[in-house]
């Protein structure tokens, strides 16, 4: 695993795309089960939060229960300390605004095939909030910075897709014809969703020290950006 930070209380890794954070739903093991297997001496290892299997980037694991409790309180907004979470997303089309707040209610549902999905539902959904900042215009695409203020399932993917700007490579809410097109080697060869948890900033749960953790883009994402920039 690509370790970004570690001390006695926390472990931060740069999770690769395609790896689940925990087992279940047909997956025998994920990051947390793998960590427990390779660190049998560790008395406590628990996920602080979750990111989608298809998403790469920062994943925090608590190594002490006190750290887990404190981080969860921050995530729930029960303290004066907030956690900043920012993602890099590449979307189809020309995103029009330099900065936009997306606030919708999101609800979970299950498809006929038994797959979990999320949709905008202003009647029965839960409040969600994403701040989107345009970073770079590219041929047929826009690179965005997405700061999530709430942590709903598939939040960024549904927010951007519902605005008409699906994330490139998203196999649940994306443009499937475009995904097939960009996966071809002659069109860049991107075979995954372009969504990456790039930055987290928070007060250390035990010391209160201000912390910033950043995860660089993986080579396949950098390669696809380079491909678009040279068109």
Can you characterise this structure?
- The protein has 231 residues and is an alpha+beta fold.
- Helix content is 20%, strand content 35%.
- The chain has helices at residues 31-38, 65-75, 155-162, 176-183, 219-229, and strands at 3-6, 10-15, 46-47, 56-62, 84-92, 99-110, 116-120, 126-138, 141-148, 195-203, 210-214.
- Strands 1, 2, 3, 4, 5, 6, 7, 8, 9, 10 and 11 form an 11-stranded mixed sheet that branches.
- A hairpin with a 5-residue loop joins β6 and β7 (116-120).
- The longest helix has 11 residues, at 65-75.
- It is globular.
- The model has no long low-confidence stretch (mean pLDDT 95).
Keywords:
231 residues, alpha+beta, single chain, eleven-stranded mixed sheet, 20% helix
Task: Please provide a brief summary of the model.
With 231 residues, this protein is an alpha+beta fold. Helices cover 20% and strands 35% of the residues.
Blueprint (SSEs and pairs):
Layout: E1 3-6, E2 10-15, H1 31-38, E3 46-47, E4 56-62, H2 65-75, E5 84-92, E6 99-110, E7 116-120, E8 126-138, E9 141-148, H3 155-162, H4 176-183, E10 195-203, E11 210-214, H5 219-229
Parallel strand pairs: 4-10
Antiparallel strand pairs: 1-2, 2-4, 3-4, 5-9, 5-10, 6-7, 6-8, 8-9, 10-11
